[in-house]
Amino acid sequence: MEGFAYSQPGTLREAFSLLTNKKGKLVAGATDLLGEMQDGIVAPGLLVSLERISGLKTMREEKNVLRIGALATLAELESDKIIAEQYSLLAAAAREVATPQLRAQATVGGNLCQRPRCWYYRGDFNCLKKGGAVCYAQDGENQYHAILGGGPCHIVHPSDMAVGLMAMGASVRVVGPRGEKTVPLEKFYVLPQVDVKRETILGPGEILVEIRVPKPPPEARWVFRKVRERGAWDFALVSVAAYAVTKDKIIQEARIVLGGVAPIPWRAVRAEQAVKGKTLTGAVMRLAAEAAVTDARPLSRNEYKIRLTRNLVRQALATLA
Amino acid sequence: MAQELTVVGKAVAGIDATERVTGRAAYTADIQLPRALYAKMLRCPHPHARVKAIDVSKAQALPGVKAVLTPRDIPSAPLAPAHGSRRALTDYVTLAGEAVAAVAAVTPEIAAEALKLIQVDYETLPFVIDAEEALKPTAPQLEKEGNLIGGRPKIFTRGDVEKGFAEADKIVEANYTTPLGTGNPLEPRAVTAQWSQGRLTLWLASQGPFLAQQELAKYLGLPENRIRVISTYVGGGFGHKYSLHPEDVVTALLARKAGQPVKFQMTRAEDMYLGHVRGAASFHVKAGAKRDGAITALSVRRIVNQGAHGASAADGGIQSTGLYNVPNLRVETLQVRTNTPDYGPVRGVMDPGENFAVESAIDELAEAIEMNPLVLRIKNIHKGGDPLDGGVTLSSSGLDECIRTGADRIGWGRRKPTGAQTGAKKIGVGMAVTTRTGGSDTATAIVKVNADGSVNLFCGATDIGTGSRTTLAQIAAEELGVRYEDISITTSDTETTPYSRGSWGSGVILAAGKAVQLAAADARRKLIQAAAQPLQVKPEDLVVANGAIFAKELPEKKITVGQAAARAGYTVIGSGTAHQTNRPTVARGFAAHFAEVEVDTDTGQIRVLRLIAAHDVGRAIHPKVVENQIEGGVIQGIALALTEELIFNRATGRLLNTNFVDFKVPTIKETPPIEVILVEPGDPLGAFGAKGSGETPIQAPAAAIANAVYNATGKRPRELPMTPRRILALL
What we know:
Chain A is α+β, with helices and mostly antiparallel strands. Chain A has 13 helices and twelve strands.
């Protein structure tokens, strides 16, 4: 690992300046960034910690919105009382991340902004994402890569929290040198066909500071499922978060979000349409599961993810029925 | 043996447990010598390349760099038999990661900086990763004779296999594959070298300091008494720390050139593929049996990816030949040269993969003849005293009892018919049996009895985390007739302990354990001689127990062991040597494993719910130590079954997952309740009847789990590891 300077600004304004003028790299829990530095993927000369900036660690409910500071740790999300009572989907997603040690250090903001786990990106390969000319996954070993939304780069987005938060209809507050904005989480992510070098809309100096989750109505139900090869410390082969508001057995509102299948957390819009206004019968669930993978285009070694996705969506809907 | 055992068989406190758990135990990387430099290797990124030119002048000029080596600066001899033709530094690379130069500098950072200043001009050459690809005439040829090592398959036969198949009522035939794997000891390889007055001291994370000493002596052209190898605390081996490695000699040569001690440690990524790996293999198995359950013929064709160097890995592998009394047998082995890591000793070597293939086939054969697979196995397994190949006989076997007690524990009788369950989640139960020859090695031990009755035990065998220090001390205490607490043990230092070949091949208990017993018996005889005169009792009427020497008939007529030692010159030395090689009888450990699994047919996930491991260990000197060995092996076996696999990028010939995120070592979530059953029939060869049990535990889980998956789903997995991807494709 190359040497680096470390700064802990006390205000966001100072942080903007360090990020833009000194080309600093933002760091929160560092569980992802230090790995990237260790592997020689990035070599920032300056790390800008958010640790001392006040107000980024708080979690509170306000006017039917849960506001989560970007620096709240996943362990805190897992054990928070309000989350457990009103937003338990988030605790369920947090519990599936990595290991207890990592969750004690990793932040929710960092989890949403983490870089892909693609073994070409992480390894000694000059791939598209690192400025090279080739996506090695395209014709290579791609069993963990995208079946939806891929190309020219075929990463999958690794965040479990993004899948859960998107299903809850969350948005994120982003501040930067030129002001602040609040965007729905699904507008926060960028497909490689738009920009292959990044996964989010964050521009130079911009910082994700808060996540806002609308309070679900009492009729809402949800479920989170993650399938992986190893029972802990593993990223999703496929994950699904499903959220539905039902009245008189009829689905009024539904969000179905998939992880591990696309370069961004993937909203399965066709599956949502297939259940909206319907009662969750076996036939409806099968149709919705099929709709979730209608657009899937497998690579040479990841066709199993189609079947896995279909089955997981069906299982998830069955839990909500 | 009329006397009751007082130390053997007891779960005494580990002799080094306090040192280990308090962090005071000094492992090789903890050795910090004054003025020590740090070494780094420049590794070639290409799987097949020639170094056309190398320029190290800028590296040499970097302040803080004290020595730089290229292939021109080192002996041209190959390193050690386990590495075949591999050189410590090379200008002809056949494996990505081979070192082409090395640097020693005052800090690791300067050493890393110096590597970047070395300019290498490579001519890259075509490479081949797959064994079956390498056998095609169009593949790049890596040896003069071609990629098939030796130019032709190795064939072993017994009886007439064609006649055997003709006699069979049913024949099953299928292909099984197992991936490239690696052992991952907790402690990566490490070495520190220091020269003083023409003598070399090497602190080395090694399973066999004596083998390393011999190989170093040969390589450097020095007598063995000028090389000292110390391997006091070693954090796991799994075969990985067998033999001398390139980095070990390069570190020694850097230290000689720099005139300062040099320290080197492998990174985790380097350690995962640059030592010994378990090569990928395929097994084409054909088995035939009569309806009454007599297995009439077995034919196994093994295609083994040997990697870039070496050639001995596949010579073991006795699951085809050694489990069942099959009259007609043919084993054909193709060892294939490729541009992949070197297949060498890794816990169980070939046998876990071969067991998966053979024991899956036996399960299939049982179904074909409509026989309970447990009954088919009991009918055909070897019994103690059976003749084996090569004119030797089997010393003992408790496998029958392992099968019966294990079956009883898992509830084999309640096993559901195959494929009978509806619903997405299906439960299955499966079994497999296995065996391994343990301890065809030589060891010597020395026991020194002091005038206060305390005892020093000197034994060369390294305790690589198996608890052998404790076990050997127990054997010494029991045989000598002193308390366990009276023993202090010194191990694995070529200068202060006698020869012991090494801690591998399930061999420590049989070779070193026997040597310790013989040494203690020798010391006891001398103590008795010394006590006979003052006690006025004939030596043959004296016994030693609990630190005292007394007459069998008159226990009050006694002197202490210390008093006897004082009379004999204040020190009594006993020595013993065990030759467990080339004996007319062969000791083998046995095991029967039973797995209960849940297969989620929606997700392809397999959860092992229970694993029963019934092991014939001869006798457990320390029951907890043996159980630990078995549990650790079973966990590694489950990993081979379900998660672990090194994966290549075929376009570049580089490995993709040399880290613990992408190479999925198991966690507690993959670890089911493991129920160990110790079967202890005793064995005539080992100390107090003990046999080796280091490798049988890793050999049977994959087949037991695969057979359970078949029982649950009616579909037979033939490819490891059984990941969701493979299981979904199967269902």
